[in-house]
Design goal:
The N and C termini lie far apart (100 Å). It is rod-shaped and about 155 Å long. The chain is built from 21 helices and 40 strands.
């Protein structure tokens, strides 16, 4: 039991040490390797750092490329496996080092300078000639011919067949070797390996991206064995890099069960056999613990050791370095990725480098002729390890950039496509184009790969550390998806698509919590408010109990209030992110993505849908309101005949005229819709406000056309579009309210004046027991007169020689809100019922003559006109009203607290409360609807001009529908023939 506890504690300690161990290390380049004391330094490509050569500068120096230790002149190699795995021995005093460096020779008459023989000259002597230049003369045949001399012990012909060279190091160590003969079983990658290990069940295929696999090329198959042995036995760094490249070519395919011997399995074998020092010669390919167990992806990506403070002002770049290797493991150097080094798409340097401007959401895609990928000069088969370059207190550091291969398989399971980053297995090496792995036999001249794999999409993701506001980021990672194209398709003209993008994110848990709280709280309040508005409506509609109509109205009221709340929330969030994202110095937030963005979009769409329901409800309510025009004109005389009494001779044209004016102002707006759309498009598209909506730190309106333009943010476009639309509407409203209506024209007040001059009042019952009244009774007692009398009446009113126009004596108050008694409503419905039945054709009405229907309407008009005129004049004993002001609380809450079921109440208003029955009094709701409509269209098409045009057309169609419905309702309720409504 104690042993088990001890082991558990040990494992926990190991876990803590591994967990806390950071991946970053000090940055060193080849140029940083110098002579330290008596020793030179070489650059180790596996660890990317400078190491000291094993012998001092007397016997050893460093190669010109800085990657290997080499023997000084006068010293020859006794061991050389590259890098620092070199030993040297001094030549005798009378000898110099041989040309291949592995022995010492007499220089004869040439002489020795600095431990080396002097050269013979600039010309190369052919093997067919003597040293003096004469052709070889065979003494036996006396013929000048080629001399076929066998190579001596420990030598064999070079690859060109021009001279004898020493055998490979493996063959050289064989005692008593007289030839360099190598059997086929021992040949691999140009080497003869007598100690070649037996590799069973070798994986000889490379995975393609379409679920299939292709045969490994013969060259790479041999290279696998050679690189494995050279790396395992001799720790040759170039061979180890080659093995790592072959592992990358197989998408790091690895099986714990070792059922297949893949390049990655061999790579893991070397780590197991060299746990203590494998990092000294083997490239670190995986994010692992001790090189074997894959580290959970979330632990790699949650490292907070990168303490650099990233800012927008001054703008900073993401410094990414790429260590490049050829397929054969040759180190090409470590350089910046600027200039499109890891991008297949071509463009200007400025645009390509914009990908690494911190905060710029970058996206670039293109189409490439597939056949170009077979061009190894244009698309070199190179491999890359990426590092983030940053500063710490102790100097410049580099952090390996995790690579998330979406095609990666572990135990035949694609773990990197899991949504949980804990399941991810991250690696450190990748390639852009593989045009070597599926090439045919190495001996086949001009062999072409059967398939080429390429980077279909590569995305760099950066995440802000959520616990700080100091611009600190987690390690960036790159997500790669590969594509495959066959040679057959390429030769038939196929093209491939590739893309490169850079995305940013930050921890949105706090934002989502605040978002959900605000939505939940404000939605609850809006539902309560909708319930209150429903109660007010039911009171005004005379509904003593909850019925189906009440529930339907509650749903519509809830739609309107929720739509307003959703608009406030979505616009507020969008404006907040736009303002603070563009204006931040030290970075503390990015654009929301993923689930948070989808929730915001859902709320935006829901707000628009609910606003549409509110608009439909408003139009239906306005197009079903009861409107009647009370004619106060008294008949001059009555004409009687033997047949019937024809009625008064009062002209109906005044009523028709007022009805037409009412019809015209039904869709009147406080803003000019044409100017609204024109101004919005002008500011957004012409002035360039839409340029601010890009997903980058640049908040300028005017941007350089040669620079990269980041894609627009849906949220930012919404914030800019809604802001401009509302501001233009607000400016219009201020102008029309304070200037135009005061000094030019106020059509609503002109309508009230028209009613007074026409001697006609407007009685609007928006609900059964609530409505609006425009008092138009002429102070002159008549309006149906000639031009002279009309001018005379107007002059008397100007000279204050008559009474005032108000409903009450000596007042000018002409407009009121009405809380009507139940009896008035019952009486009104009783009188209008026959007309309604006639209009619907019910109760045998369809069989009546046209003249009978007209008489019914005429009688109903006269009765209603007399009834409502009597009510307004206090002439009805059982139905009466009082005039009073609303209390402050009633005005704020837009309701009436007093009971008007028995006696009506006329409330003094601000002079135009009746415009609530028109578009004019609902401008705020209409502007919000127009704004949401404009933004939802732009969300779909990403075009402000098109959004403006479609918004204008749709609002005009809505106005036409409202005008048509209002015209129909006006003709029905006022009993005015619709043919006279122009």
């Amino acid at each position: 039991m104690e042993d088990k506890c001890a082991k558990l504690i040990l494992l926990l300690n190991i876990f803590v040490v591994v967990r806390c161990q950071s991946q970053y290390k000090a940055f060193e380049n080849i140029t940083d390797c110098k002579e330290t004391g008596l020793f030179f330094q070489y650059y180790q490509t596996s660890s990317l750092k400078c190491l000291t050569c094993p012998e001092n500068s007397t016997s050893m120096t460093v190669s010109s490329d800085g990657l290997n230790c080499i023997c000084n002149p006068g010293y020859y190699y006794t061991r050389n496996f590259g890098g620092g795995k070199v030993t040297c021995a001094k030549c005798p005093a009378n000898q110099a080092r041989s040309a291949d460096g592995w022995g010492c020779v007499d220089c004869g008459t040439l002489g020795i300078v600095n431990g080396e023989c002097l050269t013979c000259g600039t010309r190369i002597t052919p093997v067919e000639r003597e040293l003096n230049g004469n052709l070889y003369l065979n003494a036996g045949t006396n013929q000048r011919e080629r001399d076929c001399r066998p190579c001596q012990d420990n030598t064999w012909l070079n690859s060109a067949g021009t001279r004898c060279v020493r055998c490979t190091d493996y063959l050289k160590t064989t005692v008593g070797l007289t030839t360099c003969t190598c059997i086929d079983a021992q040949k691999a990658d140009g080497l003869c390996l007598p100690s070649l290990p037996t590799l069973t069940n070798v994986l000889t295929t490379v995975p393609l991206t379409n679920g299939f696999a292709a045969q490994f090329s013969e060259l790479l198959d041999k290279q696998l064995k050679a690189s494995y042995l050279m790396c395992q036995e001799n720790k040759n760094e170039t061979a180890c890099q080659t093995l790592g490249n072959m592992c990358a070519l197989t998408f790091f395919e690895y099986e714990d069960s070792l059922q297949k011997t893949s390049a990655c399995n061999l790579y893991k074998n070397i780590i197991r056999d060299n746990l203590a020092d494998w990092k000294n010669f083997l490239p670190d390919m995986y994010f692992t613990r001790d090189g074997l167990i894959a580290q959970d992806g979330d632990r790699v990506l949650d490292d907070e050791s990168i303490t650099t403070t990233y800012t927008f002002d001054p703008p900073m770049k993401i410094k990414i370095l790429a260590a490049s290797y050829t397929q054969n493991g040759e180190f090409l150097g470590i350089d910046s990725v600027l200039g499109g080094k890891i991008q297949l798409c071509s463009d200007t340097t400025t645009r390509l480098n914009a990908a690494f401007v911190f905060g710029t959401y970058y996206s670039h895609s293109c189409s490439i002729p597939a056949i170009d990928l077979w061009d190894k000069t244009k698309y070199k088969p190179e491999f890359y390890d990426l590092f983030l370059d940053f500063e710490l207190e102790d100097g410049r550091q580099i952090y390996p950039v995790p690579i998330k291969l979406n095609d990666y398989l572990h135990n035949r399971r694609n773990v990197n496509q899991e949504s949980d980053s804990k399941e991810w297995h991250l690696v450190k090496r990748f390639f852009l184009v593989d045009n070597i792995a599926t090439t045919g036999a190495a001996t086949t001249a001009g062999a072409q790969p059967e398939y080429v794999r390429y980077v279909k999409s590569i995305s760099m993701n950066l995440k802000l550390v959520g616990s700080t506001s100091t611009g600190q980021i987690f390690p960036p990672y790159i997500s790669i998806t590969y594509g495959t194209v066959s040679l057959v398709d390429a030769q038939q003209g196929a093209s491939i698509s590739t893309s490169f993008s850079v995305d940013y994110e930050y921890e949105t848990s706090k934002y989502r919590r605040d978002f959900q709280i605000s939505v939940g709280t404000l939605s609850t309040l809006s539902i309560i408010y909708a319930g209150y508005r429903t109660w007010v409506w039911s009171k005004r509609a005379g509904k003593p109990a909850i019925d189906f109509q009440t529930i339907i109205n509650f749903l519509f009221f809830a739609s309107g209030s929720l739509a307003n709340i959703f608009f406030v929330i979505t616009f507020g969030i969008a404006f907040y992110f736009l303002t603070f994202f563009k204006g931040q110095n030290t970075v503390f937030l990015f654009h929301i993505t993923g689930l948070a963005e989808r929730e915001w979009l859902a709320l935006f769409g829901s707000g628009f849908a609910l606003k549409c329901l509110q608009m439909a409800h408003m139009i239906i309510m306005q197009c079903t309101a009861d409107v009647f025009l009370i004619d106060w004109e008294r008949p001059k005389h009555v004409v009687a005949t033997s047949e019937k009494k024809t009625g008064s001779n009062v002209s109906i044209w005044r009523t028709y005229f007022v009805a037409n004016e009412w019809n015209e102002i039904q869709t009147l707006r406080k803003i000019n819709q044409i100017f609204q759309i024109f101004a919005v498009i002008f500011f957004l598209n012409v002035v360039g406000f839409e340029n601010v909506a890009t997903k980058d730190p640049d908040g300028r309106i005017i941007k350089d056309t040669t620079s990269y333009r980041a894609e627009d943010s849906t949220m930012f476009r919404y914030a800019i579009g809604a802001s401009v639309y509302i501001l233009v509407a607000l400016c219009q409203w201020i102008f029309f309210t304070l200037i135009y209506e005061r000094f030019v024209e106020d059509k609503v007040r002109q309508f009230v004046d028209l009613c007074s001059m026409s001697n006609i009042s407007v009685f609007v019952m928006a609900h059964a027991q609530f409505g609006y009244y425009v008092h138009g009774k002429s102070v002159h007692g008549k309006a149906d007169t000639n031009m002279g009398d009309m001018f005379d009446m107007m002059r008397r009113e100007e000279d204050d020689l008559c009474g005032k126009r108000g409903l009450l004596p000596d007042t000018d108050q002409q407009t009121f809100m009405m809380a009507l008694p139940r009896k008035l409503r019952v009486k009104y419905e009783t009188v209008m019922l026959p007309v309604a039945l006639e209009g619907s054709g019910a109760v045998g009405g369809a069989g009546k003559s046209k003249e009978t229907i007209i008489n019914t309407k005429t009688n109903a008009y006269n009765v209603v006109n007399k009834f409502l005129a009597g009510f307004v004049d206090h002439s009805l004993k059982e139905i009466d009203y009082v005039v009073k002001d609303k209390t402050l609380l009633e005005s704020i809450m837009d309701t009436e607290f007093l009971d008007a079921s028995e006696k009506g109440i006329f409330y003094n208003d601000d002079g135009h409360s009746f415009d609530r029955a028109l578009f004019y009094g609902n401008e705020s709701a209409l502007v919000v609807f127009d704004t949401l409509l404009f933004c939802i269209i732009d969300l779909i098409f990403q075009n402000f001009v098109l959004a403006g045009v479609l918004t204008y057309l749709i609002t005009e169609l809505i106005a036409m529908a409202r005008d048509s419905g209002g015209r129909w309702n006006l003709a029905k309720k006022t009993l005015v023939d619709k043919r006279f409504l122009i």
